[in-house]
Amino acid sequence: MESLLFTPAKIGPIEIKNRVIRASAYEGMCDGHVPTQQLKDYHTAVARGGVGMTSVAYAAVNKSGLSFHRQMWMRPEIIPGLRDLTDSIHEAGAKACIQLGHCGNMSHRRYCGQRPVGASGGFNLYSPTFVHGLRKDEILQTVKDYGNAVRIARDGGFDAVEIHAGHGYLISQFLSPYTNHRRDEFGGPLENRMKFMDMVMEEVMKAAGDDVAVLVKTNTRDGFKGGLEVDDCITVAKRLEQDGAHCLVLSGGFVSRAPMYVMRGAMPISVLTGYMPWRQWWLKLGVNLFGKLMIQDEPFKEAYFFDDAIRFRRELKMPLAFVGGVNSMATINRVLDAGFEFVEMARPLIYDTEFVNKLRDGVCTESGCRHANYCVARIYNLDMQCHENCKLAPRMKREVERNIKKYNK
Ligand SMILES: Cc1cc2nc3c(=O)[nH]c(=O)nc-3n(C[C@H](O)[C@H](O)[C@H](O)COP(=O)(O)O)c2cc1C
After folding, report:
1. Which residue, judged by its Cα, is nearest atom 14 of ligand 1?
2. Which residue of 263, 302, 332 sits with most ligand 1 atoms within 8 Å of its CB, as the best mutation to test the pocket?
3. Domains in the chain: how many in total?
4. What ranges in 92-135 are assigned the alpha helix state H?
5. Closest Cα partner for 89 from 54, 119, 118, 133?
6. 289-307, pLDDT tens digit by residue?
7. In a domain, 2, yes or no
8. Residue 162: its pLDDT value, please?
9. Residue 183, helix vs strand vs coil
10. Higher-confidence residue: 175 or 374?
11. pLDDT per residue over 99-152, tens digit each?
């Protein structure tokens, strides 16, 4: 059968030239929370490398949603910088998308300027931080902030926005019984826990109008006992379809509970702690001692959400994007032939921005990425990079090589 890969497809009001979208993967390239030349160069290279659309990751819709010092924060003053970025992506031949979210209980006091907020209060061991549960007035303001962020994205020239409703960030914290212990209309049964998401979507769809495509990244399951399971997530996905979303990106996992469920493979703990600043010596020490217990390995395999995602395909009519372990031409074809309209890739395009052109030209059929997850460990304190491009301290190098061996037997 002919591959669908290089055929066009639509997401709401926009058409994408082929079926590959660069998945939102936090770049760590927005010093001062603004778009930079480094971010522009990276996404322009990805666009030149042949993807249909590239997604700029993880912009916070307001200040309280920030968790990193190199994370984008959507404000009117960054519109010229966003324009410059999207003009360059467009010139390079791809559409531009931006992921919008709020880190909720994963926000960092140092950058968000206040005690982090979440669906409910308590202590988040993974951040680690005390959290305050959003009051009703704060919920209403946050919902408006999502709409404003979409307007800023449109003024900045983006063709699409991706609302982050998975991975244990704010919307996901409302959805999941693990993080939502509210006793008001936003807590209790799933119907109530979806209310914040519904309100956000209403505001987002209004702001998107008839020319900006709206994708939503959502979980197929949270990935641990006590979180959302597949049936709950299908209910959420159906609601998102009713809410008017144009495409769902089907992922999974929960950063504060099952972080590697999102990505699979091992987390290189020495790399993670090796780059932590000494002022966080207590965190460095804690993660070194207990990291292996807190961050569990999840074995990697190609298209690791496939068995769950196929159930969503059967239940939904809307376009779906598949993400997670799409590493070869064979897997791309398997996913597209199963009825998913798009594939998304993160690590293969961190490894090599030219991957899609190379597939097109028959230069290769598989990515060279071996899921050592060095790029993941780096983003907590630096920018996203593949280990191939970096000089590593010997102990870090040993760990990365161990991971490569372990996950590629
Ligand atoms: C370095 C890195 C950063 C990531 N940051 C984000 C993010 O900001 N938002 C998000 O939704 N997913 C993020 N992810 C997850 C990816 O979007 C994707 O779901 C996951 O890596 C699986 O796809 P892959 O096998 O193609 O890498 C990140 C992944 C990596 C490797």
Report:
1. 25
2. 263
3. 1
4. 109-112
5. 54
6. 888 787 877 889 999 999 9
7. no
8. 98
9. coil
10. 175
11. 999 999 999 888 998 999 999 998 887 778 899 999 999 999 999 999 999 999
- Nearest-atom number in ligand 1 for the CA of 57 is 8
Rounded Cα gap, residues 57 and 40, in angstroms: 12
* Mean pLDDT, residues 323-340: 98
256, part of any domain: yes
Quote the domain boundaries for residue 139: 9-265+300-369
Pocket test for ligand 1, best of 255, 261, 347, 381 (most atoms within 8 A of CB): 347
d(CA 360, CA 289): 46
Q: The CATH number of the domain where 202 resides is what?
A: 3.20.20.70
Q: How far does the centroid of ligand 1 lie from the alpha carbon of residue 121, in Å?
A: 27
Residue 152: what are its φ and ψ, rounded to 5°? -65, -40
Whose Cα sits closest to atom 29 in ligand 1? 25
Q: Give the tokens for residue 109.
A: 């006091």
169 an active-site residue? yes
Give the closest residue to 220 by CA, choosing from 152, 277, 303. Answer: 303
Please measure the distance between the N-terminal and C-terminal CA atoms of the chain and give it in whole angstroms.
30
Q: Over 70: is that where the pLDDT of 14 sits?
A: yes
283 in a structural domain:
no
**Pocket residues: Cβ below 6 A from ligand 1:** 23-26, 57-58, 99, 164, 167, 217, 251, 262-263, 323-326, 345-348, 375-376, 379, 384
Q: Distance between CA 46 and CA 96 in Å, rounded? A: 11
In contact, 31 and 71? CB cutoff 8 Å: no
Tokens 């298209």 identify what position? 303
Question: Phi and psi at residue 98, in whole multiples of 5°?
Answer: -130, 135
> What's at 85, amino acid-wise?
L
Q: Which of the following is catalytic: 58, 169, 178, 374?
A: 169
In this structure, are residues 151 and 207 in contact, taking their beta carbons and an 8 Å threshold? yes
215 found inside a domain: yes
Which of the 8 DSSP states describes residue 71? -
**Size (the chain), residues:** 409
Contact (CB, 8 A) for 11 and 55: no
